[in-house]
Each structure stands twice: as C-alpha cells, then as structure tokens.
Write a structure and sequence with these properties.
The protein is α+β, with helices and mostly antiparallel strands and 161 residues long. The chain has one domain: Aminopeptidase. It is built from 4 helices and 9 strands. It is globular. The N and C termini lie far apart (30 Å).
C-alpha cells in the first residue's frame, strides 16, 4: 500500500469524484451541500483549495486514484461558535475502509493544522462507534449536545502548534 495524502489544491481534477462521494454518503441534507446539490458540494470543495489557511481539504490517493478526503474548517457547527478550528468531512471509499486510510487522513490533517499553529482542533460525530475510533486516535470527548435534531459527540485534539 503506497498511499499518499496531499492537499486537494494539488489534485483539483478529483473534485467532481469527491463531490459525488460526499453527496452520495450524506445526501442533500449535508452542510457540504448548502443548496442540496452535487454542484453545491463542488463549490464547497473549491473553497478549500488552500495549503496555508482554513478552510482546506486533503486527498488520500494511491497511484493518482482518489481514496478519501478530509477537511479542516472554521466554526463548523453554529451551536458552538467558541470552537474555532474543526476537522470534518472525513470520507474513505467503501472498498478501502478498514485499511488505515482514515487514520492516515486524520494524522495528515492534524499535522497540517499544527503547521498552521492551531493548538486545538474539534470534530463532531453522531455515531458512538466513530467516537470510539477517534478516541483510539487520541481525541477526547468534550460534550454531547443535540445538533440538528440528533445527539452528537463533540471531540477535541490538543495539537503541538
């Protein structure tokens, strides 16, 4: 397995495929698609074509085949504006899940945030199993609010900024 994680800015040709993945996974109700369309996801991803500021997106690939993505965002959920920097939109293609690609993406995003001198990074999930997975990666649970009508878990990582 020779998987590389780069900034999406260096692989813009992958945006349509990533947008389709995200839309198919989370549907038209996703904040990734403000207008409820795949084109909305494409526009959202194009706003993350940065290397030195947030929001930014990263891409895991093997021999130029896209395998997954993750983003660093600013104030991802409106109910917690005090939490500024967020990890989100973690996605790995179904055929490659369980192979360590998600962990690789999270580590790459945390490293990118550290390079940007971010000291705290937050994420949220609605799933206990996902929360346990993040705990194994060193994230700590902060709180369990209700968000958009569902129970959520907000987690935090302290970074070496």
């Amino acid at each position: 397995m020779n998987i590389t994680v780069d900034y999406l800015a260096d692989h813009q040709d992958a945006i349509p495929q990533i947008a389709r993945w995200l839309f198919d996974e989370w549907g038209h109700h996703s904040p990734e698609s403000p207008d409820g369309s795949v084109e909305g996801v494409v526009d959202n991803l194009r706003n993350r074509l940065r290397r030195d500021a947030l929001p930014l997106a990263m891409l895991a690939h093997e021999d130029e085949e896209p395998l997954g993505t993750v983003s660093l965002k600013i104030r991802e959920i409106e109910i917690r504006p005090q939490y500024e920097h967020w990890l989100g939109t973690l996605f790995v293609v179904k055929s490659r899940r369980g192979a360590g690609i998600g962990s690789l993406l999270v580590r790459a995003a945390v490293d990118a945030a550290s390079r940007l001198e971010i000291s705290e990074l937050y994420l949220y999930t609605r799933y206990r199993k996902t929360g346990q997975w993040y705990k194994r990666l060193g994230w700590i649970e902060v709180e369990r609010p209700e968000y958009r009508g569902h129970p959520a878990i907000i987690m935090k990582a302290l970074l070496d900024a």
